[in-house]
Design goal:
Strand content: under 5%
Number of domains: 1
Structural class: mainly alpha
Number of strands: 0
Radius of gyration: 18 Å
Number of helices: 14
Distance between the termini: 19 Å
Shape: globular
């Protein structure tokens, strides 16, 4: 829960993959935790396919999985933030989409997890997963990490369920930083949550150096540096690829020097932030 603070608004409010989509992806993983733990890669590949189905369902029902396209606002401007909250139609639409997604996921958790066959050369002990590699790297360098989050983070492969959205390496960096500075809303009063929400969105509007760690002022620096390095924050734009399944993704990622470099870059940027504010 704490780690996901920075995915609101499409990864630190940049408008990429909606937090309802990324949150739902990890929710599906948690629902099928026993199966993917016991049955390994075939079950993981099957879950990745289910996550892809969820993303497609969201897009078919709500038009897009990208926050910037759904909301039509720029959270990095005063007018954009005001328009999101007033007169209330846009924030109400988000609440409606959260309701619909929650109902879908609640029913979907009962769906049988398919066991997906993968190519023989992909039946490896340690397949490459972008967010997972970044999270493991952060933990190795800083000591800050979470084993369960690492294990389930393969759902972010290929832009979440292989659908080309927010880059898994960037998502891993934001998740890792928020393990340290994110909000644990279950342990916060409602007034504290509202205050943190207001402070975070205010921090999106300033370019002042970070003096106090907060998910949005720290996260936006990481996002900006990543975008400068990669040229974009969405997987499909960065790679120029749309992946069909687990094996297709593994074939690509195992030979992509660009993606390997971006995973290292994301790990380094997140680790610098964690070490600075720990």
């Amino acid at each position: 829960m704490k780690s996901f603070t920075g995915l609101e608004g499409g990864v630190v409010a940049t408008g990429s993959t909606c937090g309802v989509v990324s949150g739902g992806a990890i929710g599906l993983a948690l629902s099928h935790y026993d199966e993917i733990t016991e049955k390994g890669i075939p079950a993981q590949a099957g879950l990745l396919a289910l996550v892809g189905e969820y993303v497609k369902w969201f897009e078919e029902n709500y038009g897009t999985s990208f926050c910037r396209e759904r909301s039509g606002v720029d959270f990095y401007t005063i007018m954009g933030q005001l328009r999101y909250f007033m007169p209330g139609d846009k924030v109400s639409k988000c609440l409606w989409h959260i309701r619909g997604a929650t109902r879908y996921l609640y029913a979907f958790r009962e769906k049988e997890l398919p066991m997906m066959e993968v190519q023989s050369d992909q039946k490896q002990d340690k397949p490459i997963h972008c967010a997972q590699r970044v999270l493991k790297g952060i933990k190795k360098q800083t000591g800050v990490g979470d084993d369960l989050l690492e294990q389930l983070s393969f759902v972010f492969d290929g832009g979440i369920g292989l659908q080309g959205g927010a880059c898994g390496a960037l998502v891993g960096a934001i998740l890792g930083v928020n393990l340290l500075i994110g909000m644990n809303v279950r342990d916060m009063k409602y007034s504290e949550i509202l205050k943190a929400f207001a402070v975070g969105h205010k921090n999106l509007l300033t370019n002042k150096p970070v003096e106090k760690p907060e998910p949005f002022n720290v996260g936006k620096e990481i996002v900006n540096r990543f975008k400068e390095e990669a040229g974009a924050i969405e997987c499909q734009t960065i790679t120029g690829q749309k992946f069909s399944d687990w094996s297709d993704f593994q074939d690509f990622i195992s030979s992509s020097d660009k993606c390997s470099g971006l995973m290292g870059f994301a790990k380094d940027q997140a680790s610098i932030a964690v070490e600075k504010w720990a």
